């Protein structure tokens, strides 16, 4: 008897234009500035919306992420922190 393999249920791929990248940052953070440059480039290339949030203005974000700044979320889920890899972000937004 052979085993039965089931395909994992997946959600349909979303078009890049339907995605949202969030940069969680704080003022005076050079890594945050570097991350923003990568996000701006990738999002402009793909037509993806992006936003930034300041942890000094949001206690919940501060408590959750203060040791990981900058943090990048894709559609509300943590994608990376500290350094943003352009190719990895691009792949996450197109697959």
Automatic annotation (TrEMBL):
Q: Which Pfam families match?
A: Glrx-like (PF05768)
Question: Which domain of life does this protein belong to?
Answer: Bacteria
> InterPro entries in the record, alphabetically?
Glutaredoxin-like, Glutaredoxin-like_YDR286C, Thioredoxin-like_sf
Listed name of the protein: Thioredoxin family protein
What organism is this sequence from?
A: Streptomyces spinoverrucosus
Q: What is the lineage of its organism?
A: Bacteria, Bacillati, Actinomycetota, Actinomycetes, Kitasatosporales
């Amino acid at each position: 008897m052979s085993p039965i393999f089931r395909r994992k249920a997946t959600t349909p791929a979303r078009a890049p234009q339907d995605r949202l990248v969030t940069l969680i940052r704080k003022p005076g953070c050079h890594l945050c500035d570097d991350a923003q440059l990568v996000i701006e480039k990738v999002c402009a290339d793909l037509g993806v919306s992006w936003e930034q949030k300041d942890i000094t203005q949001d206690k919940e974000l501060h408590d959750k992420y203060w040791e990981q700044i900058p943090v990048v979320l894709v559609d509300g889920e943590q994608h990376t922190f500290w350094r943003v890899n352009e190719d990895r972000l691009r792949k996450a937004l197109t697959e």
